[in-house]
Specification:
With 324 residues, the chain is α/β, with parallel strands linked by helices. Helix content is 45%, strand content 18%. Strands 1, 2, 3, 4, 7, 8, 9 and 10 form an eight-stranded mixed beta sheet that branches. A two-stranded parallel sheet has the order 5-6.
Length: 324
């Protein structure tokens, strides 16, 4: 019996020791969408700073497809040692349990939340030569041409797709939905004039607006953004219920030791507290997390609330998978 207690004591002591040594190799940070989108941009900013804090490289890997659930599954099924993380969004971790209820291979609520990198306000964009100059003109044009105005997004279940569903749900507008493997490719096609419109998040949208490569009809917030002061809010544009701010957040696989999660969370907290990092995020029109919103507890609460909220919109839109 004494021998058993000695072994248990050694196992208990081993976890804190492992956490002290962590990380022992580079960390793979899976981003569930293609390069160039909001989730990817914020992940790379966080990874750069966390590399310096943790003393090991944090390498971003884009694993795309199925509204972010392919990358989400890869991250969730990784060894729970802290060396593989996932950066997800509302789409991949809040909407996916409802849209992909029959095929999703992970339960977001069972993951170990590390923290929120930041919030991402949504812009409704159109290609530069689109005939409508205001949201009112845009809505009138879509109504006059039902099913003909294309709306690009990052794939079924992505946060951009949820923006499309929300706008259609609130207004009754009928678009031609065009799915891509990420926000970056969708936005590239809008800039090139291959699609008409789309809801795109600040880190991806703002650089295109600042260089005049696309036009925004509104920002889906209650206040105008400092970086785009000329863009009206949803209410000012005439569709006041169309409000959506996305997020990018870091998760570890279920069972990752608490001390390891705490060390990762501390590294993320240090990143979003750094004035230089905050400036980079704010210049993209995004909202860096605060000391309160960066925490694992906040992410866990927000995730549960988001899953419940979006289930209502998704089921009303009828975009869930058919039963097997």
């Amino acid at each position: 019996m004494r021998r058993v207690f000695q072994l248990l004591a050694l196992l208990i002591l081993a976890v804190p020791a492992a956490a002290q040594q962590f990380p022992t190799k580079p960390i793979n940070m899976i981003v569930v969408f293609a390069p160039g989108g909001a989730t990817d941009v914020l992940a790379r900013i966080a990874a750069d700073h966390m590399t310096r804090t943790l003393g090991q490289r944090v390498l971003v890997e884009n694993v795309t497809g199925a509204g972010g659930t392919i990358g989400g599954a890869r991250g969730a099924q990784a060894a729970p040692a802290g060396h593989t993380l996932t950066v997800g969004s509302i789409g991949s971790h809040s909407a996916a349990p409802t849209i992909y209820a029959n095929s999703i291979k992970y339960n977001p609520l069972e993951l170990e939340p590390v923290g929120v990198i930041g919030g991402t306000p949504l812009y409704l964009l159109v290609r530069n030569d689109f005939p409508a100059k205001t949201y009112a003109e845009f809505a009138a044009y879509v109504k006059a041409n039902p099913g003909k105005v294309s709306n690009g997004h990052a794939g079924v279940g992505s946060t951009n797709h949820l923006a499309y569903l929300l706008l259609a749900h609130l207004t009754g507008l009928n678009f031609n939905s065009v799915a891509y493997r990420g926000e970056g490719p969708a936005l590239a096609d809008l800039v090139a004039g291959h699609i008409d419109s789309g809801g795109f998040f600040a880190p991806a949208a703002v650089p295109q607006l600042q260089t005049g490569k696309a036009r925004a009809l509104l920002i889906a917030q209650t206040e105008r953004a400092t970086v785009t002061p000329d863009i009206p809010t949803s209410k000012q544009a005439g569709v006041d219920q169309f409000l959506l701010t996305g997020w990018a957040a870091v998760f570890a696989p279920k069972g990752t030791p608490k001390p390891v999660v705490a060390k990762l969370s501390d590294a993320l907290k240090a990143a979003v507290a750094d004035p230089a990092v905050r400036k980079r995020i704010e210049e993209l029109g995004a909202l860096p997390s605060t000391a309160e919103t960066v925490t694992p507890d906040y992410l866990a609460r927000m995730l549960k609330s988001d899953i419940e909220r979006w289930a209502v919109v998704i089921k009303a839109a009828g975009v869930t998978e058919p039963a097997n």
